[in-house]
């Protein structure tokens, strides 16, 4: 449902949030290893997250990526998805057709509309803090 870049962006943001909550910055190399993404591709994704003010980049010997504590609590998954993929996930056809709308629906249009709305609700109501806490408590995992 998400592009590969968006999947990596979500995982990277969660990993950075977990580490930031422990007052630790992480390097691009650490991030790419944790999310199992090529370093160059990870760098582009991180640039998009920085440009959209989701993560901060700190240069220097003790630099790396971090997220301010208050931003961890308020950043929604929808912001990460928008930063990487835009709003196409809310508009696209379930079958990938170019012309699919209320007036010219594809065979799964009405069913996919429900799924898309539930996805929007989940993305807009899930914060990085919730996901980071699940990782820290062992309820969820980023890597197996």
From TrEMBL:
Q: Which GO terms describe its molecular function?
A: DNA-binding transcription factor activity
Q: What species was this sequence derived from?
A: Winogradskyella pacifica
Q: Which Gene3D superfamilies match?
A: Winged helix-like DNA-binding domain superfamily/Winged helix DNA-binding domain (1.10.10.10)
What protein name is recorded for this chain?
BadM/Rrf2 family transcriptional regulator
Give one Pfam family, short name only: Rrf2
> Where does the chain cross the membrane?
none
Residues spanning the signal sequence: none
Report the GO terms under cellular component: cytosol
